[in-house]
Please model this.
Amino acid sequence: MTRGKSGTAGGAAGATAGSTAVGTETSGSGDIVRTQQLLWDTGPRPSRGPKPGLTLDRIVEAAVRVADTEGLHALSMRRVATELGTGTMSLYRYLPGKGELLDLMLDRVQRPSENPADLGDGGWRSALEAMGRATLALYRRHPWLLQVNQSRPVLGPSALDGMEKVLSRIKSMGLTDPELISAVVAVDGYVVGAARTQLYAQEAEHRTGLTDAEFWQAQAPILEELMLSGRYPLLAGLSEDAFGTDFDHFEFGLQRLLDGLEVYVNRRREGGEAGGG
Model:
């Protein structure tokens, strides 16, 4: 063995949108009431600004583009204004500041699919499986999401619509309401960890200039010597493909997590205990 490789109501609604731990930004850091008004379109509308065609939707879309292409550290009201070709002050006619903008961005990118097939074949397991894969794909499209602490999200249409869709598919598990939420949180937490690991690997290659293969090749001489020393017999005895890139660690872990939930669901059904409390 000479190398190693490692491969989404209330707070729970935010869990399906990404239950990150500590990030460089925090959701709900702006004016919460004003953010809710903006998310649900219930507040006062801005007076006509000096730049025709500027809308809240365009501002949010531009902010997402900046975060996607340059990273969350580059996001500012000034940078978004530049992206739109307007003055910074014109943005403040539509929203108070960066904190509220971030929450609107989170809601925008986490909008659930309108295609029922995207939540599996109708069974609870396929729904959680599809949710897990879709959440991983979301983080790959928008890696800056992993830098946002979403433990206290301001709940908008995307978060609630997404949670409603998932719950409609997994209610058949027959668990209590807290258990249903916990099942969603468990899958989401697993996906967040896997997505972060993948992102860190990409960042390491970018910052060091070494590919993954080059990194492990640099360690090969000493590792080979250690494997021959007899000090690590179990590691030395691993097959050549033990750390190969062909094995899908994410899918393996997701399926084992779902296997565990299935055992629990079947046990509850056999015991005749009613859920949905």
Observations:
- Confidence is low (pLDDT under 50) at residues 1-22.
- The chain is about 60% helix and 0% strand.
- Strands lie at 25-26, 148-149.
